[in-house]
Design a protein that fits this description.
Blueprint lengths: L8 E2 L2 E2 L3 E2 L6 E2 L3 H11 L30 H8 L7 E5 L5 E3 L1 H6 L3 E8 L5 E8 L2 H8 L7 E10 L4 E8 H4 L5 E3 L1 E2 L2 E2 L9 E3 L12 E7 L12 H6 L8
């Protein structure tokens, strides 16, 4: 079982971010090395996250990460209730897409009540609704060689205003509970929770659930994304690329 702080030791090698089992020295794998190991060695990644009853939803659901991108571009979209917003899907796909909220809502939907676990130590239960990511990827048609799905977002951090980004592999991309949520608790997403669209990848920690998604890109390698570790916090703060829970 992988915990948020756990290690995996197989054949004498420590294979996720942590300390070497034999020497005590840090051993960090690249996202791609971790991906290869996970694909070969870990069973059960297709298992479902626990789902809850409506009455078990949390009375308060904190916002994680950015509360409002507050850029001129985002504010203009929000002022028009995201009528002009489009989700761009590109990279290693056969059919690039540009999808409106209305089009996303017209696709087959999945609703799920799940627990959000933040790396900061808090959890909350909420209901999410949207199309499965698999549906979008099948519409676009992944090309041979696509191994990761990267999410480019409207919120930005730091003095350099680096846009938030995250990535998952195809195991999580095609998981039945991985959705692009436009609704939370039976209402359109609020700005604090990532309007108009956020990723829900239910068996990973909260920083993997990218908010304010603007563009999805299928890629063969993460080497050209940020600093190459697979996500914003992975690159700048050493978070694990696979934030499994």
């Amino acid at each position: 079982m992988i915990t948020r702080r756990g290690l995996i030791v197989t054949g004498g090698a420590t294979l996720l971010a942590g300390c070497d089992a034999w020497s005590g020295s840090p051993v960090l794998l690249s996202a791609e090395d971790a991906h290869r190991y996970l694909q070969r060695s870990i069973n059960g990644r297709a298992a479902l996250a626990r789902e809850f009853r409506p009455e078990q939803r949390s009375p308060r659901f904190r916002t994680n990460g950015t509360a409002n991108p507050n850029t001129p571009e985002y504010n203009a979209l929000a002022a028009n209730r995201f009528a002009d917003w489009r989700l761009q899907v590109g990279g290693l796909v056969a059919r690039p897409l540009s999808l409106s909220l209305a089009q996303l809502r017209s696709l087959p939907q999945r609703a799920q009540i799940t627990r959000h676990d933040c790396v900061e130590g808090w959890s909350a239960i909420g209901k999410w609704q949207g199309p499965r990511l698999e549906t979008i990827l099948r519409l676009a048609g992944l090309r041979d060689g696509a191994r990761y799905i990267v999410f480019h977002c409207a919120d930005a951090f730091g003095q350099r205003r680096i846009p938030y980004y995250e990535s998952i592999d195809l195991v999580d991309a095609f998981h039945p509970q991985t959705i692009l949520a436009w609704a939370m608790n039976d209402a359109p997403l609020g700005i604090g929770h990532g309007a108009p669209l956020r990723l829900r990848v239910e068996r990973q920690l909260g920083y993997k659930h990218a908010k304010y998604v603007m563009r999805i890109e299928a890629v063969a390698s993460l080497a050209g994304i940020g600093r190459g570790k697979g996500g914003f916090w992975e690159d700048i703060a050493g978070y694990e690329w696979y934030g499994g829970i």
